[in-house]
């Protein structure tokens, strides 16, 4: 009779916990579920589960209770039955704790993501500081639309410079020897301008990526 009462009590406890888990999963916004989808919330010895939804854990506890019932019917050793009971209790405690720590998990994920983004910003800023392109960020509003306009402007400049270099190279073959040095210097100057323009393009592309990355992360 004590064995029957134990199984009954465990299943009653499980049904009550299942209702809490269902409320938890139903109230979890889709974007939060996406943030948690690759997070392992438990030790593998307790549950095989990852992500925001906790309902899969209920089925695993139910199987453990079924296993305990079989052990009791088979009359297995007290030590074996006690070990199974401890495992079931550990699962209850871990799942109950997970219900309350979802907000903390989300906070940790956001803090980690923001920290990585800040490190990326510092890295990219340091990469371009010596190039003298900070004026681009200061001269346009911090939105991707205006940065795309600036990017298109620099791409057009680069294209025109490339065309000019091609014209100069063609003219170099036909110019007089006395003019070759001047012609070569002009070609070299155009290559320097093209290099600066390409650096500016790279800088603008990085700025666009920084502005748009939070939206991509959010929609994953």
Q: How would you describe the overall organization of this protein?
A:
The chain has helices at 2-26, 30-36, 55-74, 78-129, 134-139, 144-172, 177-218. By secondary structure, the chain is mostly helical. The relative contact order is 0.08. The mean pLDDT is 81.
Summarize this structure briefly.
The chain has 220 residues and is an all-alpha fold. The chain has 7 helices and no strands. It has helices spanning 2-26, 30-36, 55-74, 78-129, 134-139, 144-172, 177-218.
Secondary structure class reads mainly alpha
Radius of gyration: 32 Å
Q: Determine the strand fraction and express it as a percent band.
A: under 5%
Q: Describe the largest sheet.
A: none
Q: Label the overall shape.
A: rod-shaped
Helix content: over 70%
Distance between the termini: 53 Å
Mean pLDDT figure = 81
Note the main attributes of this structure:
rod-shaped; mainly alpha; 82% helix; 220 residues
What layout of secondary structure does this protein have?
Layout: H1 2-26, H2 30-36, H3 55-74, H4 78-129, H5 134-139, H6 144-172, H7 177-218
């Amino acid at each position: 009779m004590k064995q029957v009462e134990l199984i009954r009590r465990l299943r009653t406890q499980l049904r009550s916990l299942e209702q809490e888990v269902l409320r938890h999963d139903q109230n979890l916004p889709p974007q939060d579920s996406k943030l948690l989808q690759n997070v392992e919330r438990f030790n593998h010895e307790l549950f095989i589960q990852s992500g925001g939804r906790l309902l899969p854990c209920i089925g695993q506890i139910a199987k453990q209770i079924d296993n305990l019932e079989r052990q009791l019917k088979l009359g297995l050793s007290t030590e074996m039955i006690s070990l199974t009971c401890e495992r079931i209790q550990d699962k209850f405690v871990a799942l109950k704790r997970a219900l309350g720590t979802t907000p903390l998990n989300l906070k940790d994920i956001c803090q980690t993501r923001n920290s990585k983004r800040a490190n990326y910003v510092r890295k990219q800023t340091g990469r371009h500081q010596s190039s003298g392109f900070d004026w681009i960020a200061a001269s346009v509003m911090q939105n991707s639309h205006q940065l795309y306009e600036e990017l298109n402007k620099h791409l057009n400049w680069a294209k025109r410079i490339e065309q000019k270099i091609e014209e100069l190279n063609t003219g170099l073959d036909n110019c007089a020897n006395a003019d070759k040095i001047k012609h070569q210097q002009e070609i070299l100057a155009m290559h320097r301008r093209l290099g600066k323009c390409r650096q500016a393009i790279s800088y603008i592309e990085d700025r666009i990526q920084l502005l748009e990355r939070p939206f991509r992360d959010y929609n994953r």
